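Hey,
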Amino acid sequence: MKKANAWSLALIASISLWWGVAPAWGATAPPLSEVRVFKVESARCSEKVPEGAQSTEMCQHRGPTKISVMEVGLGNSPMGRFDGAELDGQRTPICQVGNISEACNGVGTLMGYIYVFVVNVEAQGWFEFSNTSINGPQVTLKTMFNIR
């Protein structure tokens, strides 16, 4: 059996840092199994979105509005859009630590991401998020959500 040298181990560590977060050693990346909007926040109000909801219900969101998306599993091509316009977003890795899911801080197994998109909502419109699973089956999941 060939021993790993320091250079090959350094390369693996460097690649992991470049990717941003490394899952637990030896763990298989979980396939993408769910994407959904779970929170919408604006100056007017903050709404926790129940599972299965297709629209905001509490108020009309206008101005800068944060749309939070939960992704369970790992994807490799996240895309957020509002009324067809592509959005930039921020993502936070979520790890499974025992029976708890929390922001990754060096422990646990990477299980998905929370994405936050900020949109200047001028009128009611459609938010769409999609991603394709990083491993088999390479399904693409999409959610569409009406922002009132």
